[in-house]
Amino acid sequence: LSIYLLLLQEVSYHLAVYVPRILCLGPSGGSSREEQREEQREDLASQLLLLAPLEWLLLGEEPASGLHLLQENNQPSPLCGHVFKVGEPTYSCRECAADPTCVLCMKCFLGSIHKEHRYRMTTSGGGGFCDCGDAEAWKKGPYCQQHRHPPTDRDAEEDPVSVLPADMVARGVSIFSILLKYAVDMLTWDQEDQLPAGLEPLEDTYYCMLFNDEVHTYEQVIYTLQKAVNCSQKEAVSFATTVDRDGRKSVRYGDFQFCDQAKSVIVRNTSRQSKPLRVQVMHSSVVAHQCFALRALSWLGQIIQYSDGLRRVLCEVGLQRGPEGEYSSLVDKLMLNDSKMWKGARNIYHQLLMNSLLMDLKYKKIFAIQFAKNYRRLQTDFMEDDHERVVSVTSLSVQLFTVPTMARMLMVEENLMTTIIKTFVDHLRHRDLQGRFQFDRYTAQQAFKFGRVQSLIGDLKYILISRPSEWSDQLRLKFLEGLDAFLELLKCMQGMDPVVRQVGQHIEMEPEWEAAFTLQMKLTHIISMIQEWCSTDEHVLIEAYRKCLSALSHCHSGLPDGEQPISLSVAGHCVETFRYQVSQDKVSIHLPVCRLLAGLHVLLSRTEVASRFPEQLPLGELSPPLLIELPLRCLVLCAQVHAGMWRRNGFSLINQIYYYHNVKCRVEMFDKDMIMLQAGASMMDPNHFLMIVLSRFELFHIFSSADCRKRYRDTHKDVVQQNNTLMEEMLHLIIMVVGERYVSGVGQVESFDEVRREIIHQLSIRPMAHSELVKALPENGNKETGLERVIDSVASFKKPGVTGRGLYELRPEWNKHFNLYFHHFSRADQSKAEEAQRKLRRQNGEDTALPPPSPPLLCPLFGSLVNLLQCDVLLAVEGAVLQWAVEPSGGGWTESMLQRVLHLVGVALLEEEQQLESSSRDDDVTFNYTCKITRPGEAPSTSGSVLALLESLQNAPHLEVHKDMITWILKMVANIKTMRERTSSTLTVPVCPGQGPEETLRDKDKAERKRKAEMARLRREKIMAQMSEMQKHFINENKELFQQSLEELEASTSAAADNSPPSSESTCVAQVCVGPRRVGGAEHRQLVTCILCQEEQEVRGQGRAMVLAAFIQRSTVLSKNRRRNLPDPERHDPLFMNPDLSLGIHTASCGHIMHATCWQRYFEAVQLKEQRRQQRLRGHTSYDVENGEFLCPLCECLSNTVIPLLPHTHTPDYRYTPQVNSLFSLRVDHPSLEAWLKMTNQQITAIHSAHRKPAEPAVPDGFKVDFTPQNLFSSSVKEMITTFSMSTYKVGLKVNPNEQDQRVPVLSWSTCAYTIQSIGTHTHLGRDDCLSSLTRFSSACWTAAPPTTVQSHFIRLLAALVPDSRVENTLSILDIDMFHLLVYSVLSYSSVHSLDQSGQRVVDSAHLHILHLVTVAHLVQILLTSTTEEVCMDQDSSASEEEELTCRLYNTLRKHLGSVLPEVTSGWQLFRCVKAGCLPFLRATALFFHYLNSTAPPADLLVAGPGQWEALCSYLDLPSNLLQLHQNQHTLLEPWCCHPVVRQTLQVDGVIVRFPRESNRLIQLPEDYSILINQASSFTCPRSGGDKSRAPTLCLVCGSMLCSQSYCCQTEVDGEDVGACTAHTFTCGAGLGLFLRVRESQVLFVAGKTKGCFYPPPYLDDYGETDQGLKRGNPLHLCAERYRKIERLWRQHGIAEVIGHAQEANQTLVAIDWQHL
Ligand SMILES: [Zn+2]
Ligand SMILES: [Zn+2]
Ligand SMILES: [Zn+2]
Ligand SMILES: [Zn+2]
Ligand SMILES: [Zn+2]
Ligand SMILES: [Zn+2]
Ligand SMILES: [Zn+2]
User: Fold this and answer.
1) 1199 C-alpha to center of ligand 5: Å?
2) How far is the CA of 1601 from the centre of ligand 7 (A)?
3) Ligand 5 centroid distance, CA of 1488 (Å)
4) Neighbours of ion ligand 2 (CB under 5 A)
5) What's the whole-number mean pLDDT along residues 1553-1578?
6) How far is the CA of 1149 from the centre of ligand 5 (A)?
7) Residue 1614 CB: number of other CB atoms within 10 A?
8) Minimal CA–CA distance to 1371: which of 1385, 1361, 1386, 1384?
9) Residue 1701 Cα, ligand 5 centroid: separation in angstroms?
């Protein structure tokens, strides 16, 4: 002991000296970099100076080797014990887990047998650990591969401490107790500027410490901090984030006054609305010691990982009772101070508890007992605390209580069940005068407490979740004691929230109802579980039944008081009951005591306890009328609400009724009320039962009065209607009471049958998805519905397509089990199901009667229920309704009543038939309904028997709908008659029931005719349906057309091409689209119709302008370099597109044409409407009018500009005549390249000099520098050209419109080139209005710009190809996208050519020359960038001409560049490179000239295949051996290669774009969704040092993981704070983004800052459904088709459009703050 004290002294001294010197020195905050460095320093220092000495001491040697030695003797715990991070995936096996809280970590799961089972996957909310290795948690396969083999060299029972050397154990005990005590003392220390004795402080510096709470928002804290400690917004955010994560953070450091000042500012600023933020001024030494205490705990946690012996030593130390008595161990102290500690401290010690006590099987039990002893205290502390439950020590209950043996042990030894229930009841203090809960006028504070108190129900559920297989006397005793407590709780609920019918005035305030229902809902599983426990032991069941009954009689004590009983009589029967009317007196929906009794009653029947021990049961004490009284009132209340009698009681009541029937509550509400009525009815005279029912429905007078037809004569119409509804409801109730037998114990069925019946009825409504079915079925405590066991036997599964979900369809053979009055149908369900079933029967050519299905047999205890069907009162009711049906007049009767009566008659007949079938002799059958209905009725005024009435109704014209049913009934009656005769007589009777042969024949004939007519009608119906379906889909299909894959499109066009060749000429002549030999464009007039005014109009340059709605957006879809920064809009020179295509401008159009004037008028109207709307609502819309956005008036496609339609280009200069084809002669001068270059050069010189000195050099003939070309366009067309130019300029550069800017025409050309390029790999030549008008517009847009501007562009463009000394800073050919260069040059050439008045028209020649130049440049580009690893396979010794030429060209390039280019000998390989690299360029070029010159493409162009290369070359008038081209232009190679940038780029190995550029794809996603979840769970926020991100979000374009929807990662973009996703879109997608929100399993599309929508993820479960929000937890797998669809949307620039449509369809999407995601 003295050694211990000595050691204690030494350690304390050491800590007192060093801790304040090492930890918490100086201010925190500043940059996160500094803070990190400081933290590393502290880590190092505390390891070296504080912890290492302890390690030496403990191990007695050098720590590293000592620990290694320890580990060798360690027996790892068989438990995995992996503690879950927030968001980490957890797996639970639905077949083997003891309960749903048993989970595996991903690693264990993948190594377990359960991955082949049905499992559920969820994401952890943090805390909790992996149950792998816990034999009690799994019915099968408790070990994964890794934890499978517990080392066998040591006995599991052996004390691990005994393996350790004794002296080490002694040292361990001392060190652990000193350190643990130190840590506990420091963490529970509540003085701000004093320290425990022995740890006196050194100098006086202080911290201002801010603590978190759940009351204040981030914004409040940030704002306050900025004011209080004068920090930047960024620092404040960082402080706030840390406070939220760790629970506290020092925000200021200095002397006391300095800190105190900050404290008072914070308190003052936050105390206005609520309680102020918690702030303390703490001595820096206190803070330092607390910090070290946490490090010490972590250290302990690490050390015990090395040795199970040391782990047990620590457990022993922790749980050792202190000097103060029972609750004084160090662990007790921690637990009891839990709610006073800050979040970070709690997390660390919880973690230590999990690593130590919960991993040691012996101490886990001891700890559990201690936990149970403290239970009430801990829960009370938790109620006062405002932290979430995950950071409370009470959340450990799930680790302890769910272990079944542990739960039983705690129940028996610590009476845990009773403790939990009593603690719960104590915390719900608000009661009314009768002691019932009262949730009226609940304050927010109370509601918050109520929320917390519910976690106790969770604990109760844990200990009850597994039923005991064996009972000890002790367990019986304690369980029944717990049941007593539970009944006390239920008594407080019985009759709570009573309602009284409001007459006259509507209620003023909706009463509170949700709290009571929340309670009911939470308790539902508990109630069911208690019943399950009872069902496993006869003694317990009998005792429970007694207790419940006495509780109920206690509740009933006030019931029949006061009033005199009244006596009722009808149909010769008489009963006494008390005066009570639901419509006037108090009534409550909450009757848990009754319902528990009903549940137990069924168990008595099911377990046959009732028949085996009748003497032990207090059945004699039961008063059936009392039993049924309260449930009946509740059901009558529902009926009256349906009848509209409670309209003035508001929505609160409607909601209650809704939940009463809802699947979440009905098992322990509605269902049990039905059972109670059945129980009561089976114990009573059926006539008495019905009379009481009639009386409670307030319908008794109708049947008791002498002439019931009089009843509506002088009553108000409303009352008649009410009574009608009540009659219907009452009949329905009777149907349910006698007919609902699918509860094991009521009828002779298994739970399997019960579930199957539910499913059959759900699927009778319509085919349903798996999740819909799950939602419609009640879950048990294990979250199972039993659906999977049943579903395949009754339904067939239909897989989903690319949209929609998989559906289950009822197999036809189950249709006969359909019951129209199925008790769980809502009224809407019922009518839908009825309609569906009748339709089905008609389709099958059957009659439309929907008779009841034959019911299962009743259990003996409920056997006498059937007598209801044949009792006098019911017969009287039936007779009356039929009588009214025979002579309907006035409003006192409805068809629904008749339908229900017919159903009841049917049920009775089925019952009789069944009994007859199962009996051998006639006199066995006591049920004799047929006999009774043939007797004349006894009810007043009934003229005939029920049967007679039915017969007369059979032909009533007004009852056509019910005819089939009546026929069915009469057949049944006849059948039964025959059966009776057959059993009574020995003669055999013909099987055909009582019909003569003649009659049958006539019937047959009639039936046949009917069937034919029916068939014809069905056919007609089908055709009509098909037509309307087609119409409906037409619009949608057209809308989706552009979204369809191009592959599909191409398939269809090529198919079309087979039928009608694109042009008749193409059949005989090679089509050429460029150059002097090009074939003339279509000269036909172009007539279009305006969608707004429907007027037809010809497209003419001089006519009224026609426009096409269009949408321009910036695009990075083709980008090969996502790291390139966006250009500065003011400085950016767009004349040369970089080959990485990092940012382009895309134009799309829905193809709808309008007059420019019509469109302008439309747009103005939209603007006006929007202005007015914004004044009213100030909301966004799906389109942004201020940015020129509107929706196409026809298809609502998002648009932001219009493209003017222009006429086709002029015909070729000289007509090329096919006749001279063979001679290959042209009747036109086609100047050679040299000649053309020379001339162009002269023209350029002229232009240059014109702008400097007056004409000095030789000007080519006819070239007039100052010539103004004649105006080609009318003013309206011109205006539209400007409009579209400005839009591309504005969107493309993100600048304000400026018509003077030189860049305007460039951007117009740019969108033309980019859009054509984005069409992708498939050359789709055909009618594309958008591309065609875009190209024609681009060729004309130069007319809207000053000619000199365009000319100077041309000069610069040409200089990039043909060196020109007058142009400075030309780019190297590696920095230019050649297709863009081609388009720009061709389009800008017109401005130069327009000055040429010589009459020589060389435009086409010029185009061809430009094309040749650019093509050669591209070839060089490809060769320079080709990655030709030498592959030694000289295919052919004799190389082809192409290959030789390629080699030669390459070698020339090498001559210029030398070793920068690798040596390549294989011409074959080079040529292959060239060909593949060049193809996309040729395709795009063909498209461009096709649209520019309106040349119809030859047929072979449309077919992708081996001939395509040749077809393209010929269409472009290029030699099919492209390499020949370069021979004319070899002089250019040198300047191209010698551009300094070329060498540099190739050498430095920068970003080299290679050809062909592969088209971009979205990132690869894993097949199994949990892999993504796992990735996301280990993703930490990049800004807040190691913190887990709450909403990790994956960019589908580039694969970056982002920390979305969080303060920490907000960035400023254009002066506004935006979330990580939005910020990312600006760098990655030019404002447009596609993301996968991993935790939500949801795809997110965002465009700009205000627009976005969610999109179904490409992950489906086995039932073909997505799981957005990851609520259901079925395993999810990638659906490649759906992912491809998303990819296609992106590649075709359809995302913005999808967002637009989604927002248009769902206005709530508009209100979401997308920019914060
Ligand atoms: Zn694990
Ligand atoms: Zn494992
Ligand atoms: Zn399993
Ligand atoms: Zn018009
Ligand atoms: Zn449209
Ligand atoms: Zn990205
Ligand atoms: Zn973050």
Assistant:
1) 9
2) 11
3) 24
4) 80, 108, 132, 144, 146-147
5) 88
6) 7
7) 8
8) 1361
9) 12
Taking the centre of ligand 1 as the mean of its atom positions, its distance from the CA of residue 477, in whole angstroms, is 38
- Assign 3-state DSSP to the chain and report helix, strand, coil percentages, each to 5: 55, 10, 35
C-alpha of residue 1599 to centroid of ligand 6, in Å: 6
- The number of helices, as runs of H, and strands, as runs of E, in the chain is 60, 25
Distance, in Å, from the CA atom of 1525 to the CA atom of 1527, rounded to the nearest integer, reads 5
Cα–Cα distance, 558 to 546 (Å, whole number): 20
Q: How far is the CA of 415 from the centre of ligand 6 (A)?
A: 58
| Helix 946-953, helix 872-886: angle, nearest 10 | 30
1631 Cα–ligand 6 center, Å: 11
Q: Decide if 820 contacts 831 (C-beta within 8 A).
A: no
| Residue 389 Cα to ligand 3 middle (Å) | 29
Distance CA 78, CA 359 (A): 9
Q: Which residue has tokens 């990638």?
A: 1678
Nearest ligand by distance to the CA of 1579: 7
Question: Of the ranges 53-67, 955-969, 1081-1095, 1356-1370, which one carries the lowest mean pLDDT score?
Answer: 1081-1095
Q: How far is the centre of ligand 5, averaged over its atoms, from the C-alpha of 1147 (Å)?
A: 14
Structure tokens at 867: 């007598």
Ligand with minimal distance to 96 CA = 3
Compute, in angstroms, the gap from residue 1596 CA to the centroid of ligand 6. Answer: 7
pTM score: 0.80
User: What's the token pair of residue 569?
Assistant: 């009589």
Please give the structure tokens belonging to residue 585: 């007196």
Other residues' Cβ atoms within 10 Å of the Cβ of residue 915: 18
Written as one letter, the residue type at 727 is M
Q: Which residues contact 1316 (CB under 8 A, 6 or more apart)?
A: 1331, 1335, 1379, 1383, 1484, 1487, 1488, 1491
Q: Which one of the ligands is nearest to 1620 CA? A: 7
- Other Cβ atoms less than 10 A from the Cβ of 1176: the count is 7
pLDDT at 1250: 72
Ligand (nearest to CA of 1563)? 6
CA 182 to chain centre: 48
User: What separation in Å is there between the alpha carbon of 1167 and the centre of ligand 4?
Assistant: 19
For residue 351, the CA-to-ligand 2 centroid distance in Å is 19
Q: How far is CA 1008 from the centre of its chain?
A: 53
pLDDT at 1066 over 50: no
Vertex 314 angle, CA 308 and 319, to 5°: 125
Over residues 1590-1641, the pLDDT tens digits come to 789 999 999 999 998 887 788 888 888 889 999 999 888 888 999 999 988 9
pLDDT digits (tens, 9 = 90+) for 1515-1548: 888 888 888 887 767 778 888 888 888 888 877 7
The answer to whether 596 touches 531, Cβ cutoff 8 Å, is yes
| Cβ neighbours of residue 166 closer than 8 Å, sequence gap 6 or more | none
Sequential DSSP letters for 1005-1074: HHHHHHHHHHHHHHHHHHHHHHHHHHHHHHHHHHHHGGGS-HHHHHHHHHHHHHHS-S-SGGGTS----S
Locus of tokens 């932290």: 387
Structure tokens at 1117: 């879809």
- Residue 503 CA to ligand 5 center (angstroms) comes to 56
Residues near ion ligand 1 (CB < 5 Å) are 80, 82, 105, 108, 130, 132
Stated as kind and residue range, the H or E segment containing 1653 is strand 1651-1655
Position of tokens 């007509």? 1215
Amino acid identity of residue 551, one-letter, is A
Residue of higher predicted confidence among 436 and 1459: 436
Distance set, CA 1631 to CA 1189, 1535, 1694, 1716 (Å): 16, 39, 14, 14
Instruction: List, for residues 1339-1372, the tens digit of each pLDDT value.
Output: 888 888 888 888 889 999 998 888 887 777 788 8
Using an 8 Å Cβ cutoff, are 1542 and 1374 in contact?
yes
| Calpha distance 981→568 (Å, rounded) | 39
- Which ligand is closest in space to the CA of residue 1585? 7
Give me the pLDDT at residue 1550, please. Answer: 63
